[in-house]
Design a protein that fits this description.
Low-confidence stretches: 1-26
Shape: globular
Helix content: 25-40%
CATH superfamily: Flavodoxin domain
Order of helices and strands: EHEEHEHEHEHEHH
Number of domains: 1
CATH topology: Rossmann fold
Largest sheet: 5 strands, parallel
Length: 190
């Protein structure tokens, strides 16, 4: 695993903005810029909002994992929980970003029945051999994400650089941004 040389000024975190540190100065050993991808699935838009914030802070690429199975409405919600509980895979739209061309992939998922979503499970199943380094974040209505993170780590076979849990309530209130900033800084320290 490569050692990362990171040049971050923490003034941005102290003043609650991202302009105080320069993500463009994050370098790999040897001087090249670390290439990061935020890949996520979002049924309601909550996880997407966090992924967009994270990608904006990191100035990195983003890939939405699209589940081809309809999960709308009450029936979709019920079947989603069932699929997650049974560790089912699903059909996802073809991805446009090659995971093996990134130094780090940050995976985002809502938590369904204390598990990762079938779309994220499918993405990881199709790409786990191509992922060099990984980190996880989730949004959740109430359950603890610890079980889902353990499941994701076991499924991929790689220890995540960092994990982040964000209650959906914090996303709705807009109070999650500092957690995302802290998460990105911790990732970049690794």
């Amino acid at each position: 695993m490569k050692t990362y040389l990171i040049y971050i000024l923490f003034a941005g975190l102290l003043t609650n903005n991202t302009k105080g540190y320069d993500i463009d100065k994050i370098k790999l050993e040897g001087g090249e810029k670390m290439k990061i991808l935020v890949a996520f699935y979002s049924r309601t838009g909550t996880t997407k909002k966090v992924a967009e914030t994270m990608s904006g802070i990191l100035k990195c690429d983003m890939e939405e994992i699209v589940d081809m199975k309809s999960r709308k409405g009450l029936w979709g919600w019920i079947m989603s929980g069932k699929d997650a509980t049974q560790n089912n895979l699903t059909t996802i739209k073809e991805i446009t970003k090659a995971p093996d061309s990134y130094d780090l992939i940050i995976i985002g998922t809502p938590i369904w029945a204390s598990k990762m979503t079938p779309a994220v499970r499918t993405y990881l199943s199709q790409n786990k051999e191509k992922i060099k380094n990984i980190a996880f974040f989730c949004t959740m209505g109430g359950s603890n994400a610890g079980n889902a993170f353990k499941e994701m780590e076991s499924f991929v076979g790689k220890e995540p650089f960092q994990t982040l849990e964000i209650p959906a309530k914090e996303v709705a209130q807009g109070t999650y941004v500092q957690k995302v900033k802290d998460f990105t800084v911790e990732i970049l320290k690794k």
